[in-house]
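Continuing the series of single-chain predictions for the mutant panel. This is the parent chain; the variants come on the following pages.
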Amino acid sequence: MADKLRQTERGSLQLRLAYLTAIGVALSVLLIGMLTYVTARSSMYSQLDQELLEVASYASEPISTDVEGLGGVNASALQATNVTILLVRADKSVVRVQGISASIDPGPDEIAIARTQTGSSTRSTIGTDEQPYRVVAVPLSTETGRYAIVLARPLTPTLATLRDIGRLVGVCGGVLVLLSASMGYLTGRRLMAPLRELSNAVTRVSETDELAPLGLAGSTGVYSTDEIGDLSRSFDTMMHSLASSRDRQRRLIADAGHELRTPLTSMRTNIELLVADEKSGMLPPGARAEILTDVAAQLGEFTSLVGDLVQLSRDDVVMPSREPLDFADVVAAAVERAKRRGPGLDFDVTLQPHFIVGEPDTLERAVTNLLDNAVKFSPDGGTVHVKIAGDELTIWDEGPGIAAEDLDKIFDRFYRSNKARNTPGTGLGLSIVAHTINAHGGTVSASNQEGAGAKFTVVLPAAPPETLAEYDD
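Parent structure:
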């Protein structure tokens, strides 16, 4: 049912495009046809009027010498030229050629020409034979009075030509409309092909939960530069992002399940011992307190692990605060916390101001994780070095350093080197650091300080000058 509905919608879009194309072409053809017809009619009428006016000017001289005989014009001459002629006096009386069966009746325009003796007139009328005529009138003044020479020619050939032009325009227009509708339908079908692929891909994702990209880039691996190509590229990017996010979630769940199993198993064993001792008193003196202490430590480790998991599972990008902050203040606050955790250590701190745009709480936690790592591996009486120079924060300790095989994996979730397996921690601290710094548009890297221990370098971009100017204002 859903497939039929989608097919109906696709067909509807194709037909809609065909209809719109056909309507657009039909309107264009109609407009062009009307203009063509009107232009042709005006041109033919103008040419006919010009011919009749020329004939009238030629006939005016002989008629002026023989008004009653119309200059000797006879029926045979008029039939040869396909013209009807008559003379209209100012008093509305009419002089006609004898022997002409079809004629016209003069109208107000011709009488006005006879009376005013100025200009000329043209009009169309129906003759006494019920046929259409084109009529022109020019003034004529003689000693016997004022007249208007009126000439008329049948419009039947002209109207027949105009009908042929109209039929031709109609036929050509109909053919163009049909062709445009067909082209619109085929074009819509071609345009719908990638959209159909996109629709099928979305349906496949919703039905099979398979996050597969469209792959419409073709054999060249390059998307088209039109809107369809942009849509395909965006969809494939979204699919890759969703697939990557799902893979990260799966790895997080799998790793979390593995890491949570150990403290939970240990806590369960200790609690079972306490329950059994409550019934039988099997534990020696002092053992119960040791077990409770162990449970409390495991509970703290478990709480820390859950907190780190919650922090790391936030896939949303940290949205920096619109107000800039001095990264040196964030690092100074983290150093104060680290001093409380490493009372036997010295801290060599050199902090230059570095204004950035960021979220202070998450940044402070990231720096604290780096300092906790340095405190954890520093020997008694050692020194933790903290330095901000330019846009770079550097933290290094005097511990054993990082093994070469661990440098590429140090920021992976739950990764713990052989040196760190027997030390407290969840294996997520450095992953949180990388997640937070990357979310702020920066980078973090690990290396070994020459002659010392592990070295971590954080680079964060400075706040734009316009942001600092707004902050200063």
